[in-house]
Amino acid sequence: xxxxxxxxxRSAPRLFVAPPLAAGQAVTIEGxxxxxxxxxxxxxxxxxxxLCDDATGEWAARAISVxxxxxxxxxxxxxxxxxxxxxxxxxxxxxxxxxFDLVLEKATELGVAAIHPIVTRRCVADKLxxxxxxxxxxxxxxxxxxxxxxxxxxxxSLDTLLRDWPAGRALFFADELGGExxxxxxxxxxxxxxxxxxxEGGFDDAEREAIRAHPQAHPISLGPxxxxxxxxxxxxxxxxxxxxxDWT
Length: 248
Description:
This protein is of the alpha/beta class. It has helices at residues 31-40, 97-110, 130-143, 158-163, 182-188, 205-213, 229-243, and strands at residues 14-16, 27-30, 48-52, 58-66, 70-80, 88-92, 114-115, 118-119, 151-152, 156-157, 170-174, 180-181, 193-197, 217-221. The protein folds into two domains: 14-80, CATH 2.40.240.20; 88-243, 3-Layer(aba) Sandwich (Alpha/beta knot), CATH 3.40.1280. It has seven helices and 14 strands. Helix 2 (97-110) runs parallel beside helix 7 (229-243) and helix 5 crosses helix 7 (229-243). The chain is elongated and about 60 Å long.
């Protein structure tokens, strides 16, 4: 006899949903997500959909009703609990839209706990559509089978970030003028951490002085080459995960 196909199949579409999931409590999907399931993925009644809610974990659900405007799903089985997330914040200066989208996407893939965008004097962009940015993180998490989403904060000025900085959280400052090698700094200051990365034009002298004067700040170097803002953010996250995060 042929083997019974695995359920849910690995090809099942994956979605993040807002309400907490529980077995037997049907979830109604509407709007763009319903269009995606019904028209793009061609989900039919009885088909599997993987759901995540950023709280209880990952669930296998079965489609019990598929309409033009709504899809009703029945969570059948919890497959995984919500994953543990390293206590790392990313504090990136705003960049041009496509470049900042890349930072949001890769921060989500790499597993940061929170993203706190900042506005500095040399930022080309000074505004962020937070709802659109949240959509970028959700889509990245869905594509990479994440069960957790980073907290996404509203942008604040660098001065506000430094003024309100929590005690006990190391602030690693990627300074293009140099600092302690990143990997050594991350290992020396283990625990709750954040990465502060500047915009296309870098930090100006007054900003750099204010950051270096902060008691929680640790200037770090990301090597001998000048990196663009998005490259510096991605490189710093990767080195932190390898040195102090869950890659170890």
